[in-house]
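Before relying on records like the one below, remember that each one covers exactly one chain. Contacts with other chains, cofactors or solvent are not represented anywhere in the record.
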Amino acid sequence: GRPVVWGLAAAGESGVRRVLALLRDEYDHTLALCGGRRNADLTRDMVVRRGEPRW
């Protein structure tokens, strides 16, 4: 996506690697906040969609 292109434009291959590392870290952090350690720990009830009640 765009962040990868921005990383490429700003710093070439190392910029792309940095952006991908940041995205991976952000994903891991979000997963941990949901109480998970790996993708298999995610369930549908952890996802809130716009317009749906949150109860």
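The CA atoms of residues 5 and 53 lie 36 Å apart.
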